[in-house]
Each structure stands twice: as C-alpha cells, then as structure tokens.
C-alpha cells in the first residue's frame, strides 16, 4: 500500500456550518479514507476547537499558528486558517489549499457543503480511468444534485443529474453557466467545469491551478477555457456521486461581510465588488474580450495544446460577438459540438440572426406617396428599413390597418427594439411618425 494519500481534496470554506458535516460525510463514505489528503482553506474566526470538539485529532505539530494537521476517520486533514475579513474570494482560497498538493494521483475540488455516495472515491476513480480509453486527460465535473441539511436530509437528496450549459452573458461579456437534465448510460462529454465539483488526474493542480486573482463570478468559464487549452476533456457523470447544498440563504456570504460599511470602518481593505470588478477585467483578458496586449502570465493564462477559437467551435459560443449557435439557445441546449466547422467562415455564418414579424401598417395620410418602415435597436441604431405603398383610405376596408410580413437579418448582439412608420409627400416631406415596440 502506498504510504501517502492517493486523492488530494481541495475545499474552500467561508464561515460555513456545513464544513464539519461535509468532512465527516466524505470520510465516512470513502472506501479508503486513509488515502485522502484533505486540505481546507478555512475562512472563519480561527477557533480550532470546533475540530477537536467534532472528534478530529492532531496528527502532528503545527508549523505555523494558522495551520493545523488533523486526522479523522483515517484521513489526513490540513486546515489553513484565515480570518474571514482577510478573505480575497473563492479562487484565492482554493489556491491556498492547492499549495499543499504533494503529487497525489488524483485531485478533487469541492465546496464545503457537500454529501457523498457510499464508495464515492472508488466510483470516481473507476469512471475516470475508464474515460482514459477515449481521452488522454479526462475530467469529471458537473453541478451535483441538491440536498437540504436537517432532519430530512436523506430524503432531500435529489436523484437526477445534469450537464452544464451556457446560460447568459454578463454585461462584461463573460459567459455564465446553467444546468440541463441528463439521462445517459455513461458519462457525457461537455465543455464546462463546475467550481463545486472537479475530479481529475492529480497533475490538474499543476496544469490548471486556481487563479487567486479571480474573485468568484466567472471562475467556471475561466477554468473551462484554461483546462481545454491544456488538453483536458470534461465529462459529466451520468449518476449521482455527491450532493451540493444550494442557495444557503441562512449562511454568511463574503458579499455580505465585505461591504462598503466594513471598508469605511477599516475592517477590510477592499469591498467585494472592487475585487469582483478587477477579477472580471482579468477574465475578459483571458477570453480575449479587451485589448490587454500583455495577457496573463503562466500558469493562469491559456494553455498551448488547443486554442481559444477551438474552444468556441466546441461550445458554440462566439465570445467577441456575445453570440451563441442557434442550437445552444434552442430546446436542445447544446453545449458540445464534437465536429469543428470546415472553416472559420462557415462557423461565422451560423451566427447571423434572422428576425421575422407581422407589422401592422396604419392607413396612409391623404397625399402620401409611400410609407417608410424602420426598425431600431435599444440604442437607436437603424437595423432595417423599407418602403411600402400607401394603404388607401378609400379601400373596401377604409380606415383599417394592413398587415405586413417583414424578415431581415442582423449581426449577433443586435436585437430589434422599436418600429417607426412615417408617410412621405413631395413638397411637404415626412408626415406624422408612428412608433411601436418590436
């Protein structure tokens, strides 16, 4: 038997009452807890007695005042303590945990509010090893099904699983992820990593370490791009392997503690939104959304095994245009395109947007020679215009409006917002303007 743990487990915990129950459940349901090396970046008030009261025993003397080495259920548990007011965000905490990696064979990243199936470690290793037959660098990741702590915890555990999909672009243009129900007989290849569950070969910690400058929002697309360009392939498990406690409305959050009041009182150096703003600027650099020529230095920038454009081909996203392939936004919610396009031109063609609508033309004014119909976006940019013969007031349906079918295309990101219709008469110019929402 090897003398050191085989699975390195990284946990970021922010004032989380579920941390101890998570550690107990993880070690209690592991088939070989003695091969777990668990490292927690514990952002709380630093009272280590909560671990001893829970039955954790000290395994060796501490090298510093803010680190403790415990053993629980046979597993090695290292706790790196940081006061919650000194926290710099989720990825910073994950980064601190990763500094304790010692070349274990496997790596798992989870949140501190999780539950596990019996024999989860053996099951995850088995799935990952089976995927190596089709991918040199597979990764298991997904949003785990949910659970609710309390008396009915066991009953609350959901049995359905999901795959990750594109949800929306932020105002900065950063893609955010969602989930879609998954039914399959084996792991399904996808494109996105979930921050709350990653199981990968141990070298993942070296190849795609968490960037301590990423605060929280956008961490998943950043890690997904970096892993892809390093040659990793994401697979979503077809069965529940663990559960995750979502929403946690009663729990403390960093954006509640690190607010403007705390900064003005000197309790913190920067409010959460200040870190978030810098973090998103960095993500925009990684995704090629700004003109930062300096880029991001290794190991936090993109890899050299695949390109960002290849990631866009696979996901159906056009990052620069903030556009998605029709099948990404359609009912299928596609998130993985196995076959790349024949050319960049062919790929770009699918992002042309077509708009179709029945427009009601008002009756023309007396003497109008034609009606001008124009469509504008919310920023008052002209998207489409056409001339139409006037609708006669002396027709059998005198005074009634007439329907007109219009169809036009725009580049991605251009959405119709207003329709303006106006009549024209020689010598008099434009008549009364009629404006309606699209």
Beta-strand proportion: 25-35%
Strand arrangement within the widest β-sheet reads 3-4-5-2-1-6-12-8-13-11
The quaternary organization reads as single chain
Class inferred from helices and paired strands: alpha+beta
Dominant shape = elongated
Low-confidence stretches: 393-399
Main sheet properties: 10 strands, mixed
- Mean of residue pLDDT? 93
In whole angstroms, the N-to-C terminal distance is: 69 Å
Q: Round the Cα radius of gyration to an integer and report it.
A: 28 Å
Amount of helix: 10-25%
Total number of helices: 13
Give the beta-strand count: 22
Structural overview:
This protein is an alpha+beta fold and 438 residues long. Helices cover 22% and strands 31% of the residues. The strands form six sheets. The protein has a ten-stranded mixed beta sheet with strand order 3-4-5-2-1-6-12-8-13-11, with helices on both faces. Strands 19-18-21-22 form a four-stranded antiparallel beta sheet, with no helix packed on it. Strands 7-14 form a two-stranded antiparallel ribbon. The longest helix has 15 residues.
Architecture blueprint of SSEs:
Layout: E1 7-14, H1 19-29, E2 36-44, H2 49-53, E3 57-60, E4 67-72, E5 75-83, H3 90-98, E6 106-111, E7 114-116, H4 120-131, E8 138-141, H5 153-156, E9 161-169, E10 175-182, E11 188-190, E12 197-201, H6 204-207, H7 219-229, E13 233-236, E14 242-244, H8 254-257, H9 260-264, H10 272-286, H11 308-315, E15 317-318, E16 323-324, H12 326-329, H13 344-349, E17 353-361, E18 370-376, E19 382-388, E20 402-410, E21 418-425, E22 429-437
Parallel strand pairs: 1-2, 1-6, 2-5, 8-13
Antiparallel strand pairs: 3-4, 4-5, 6-12, 7-14, 8-12, 9-10, 11-13, 15-16, 17-20, 18-19, 18-21, 21-22
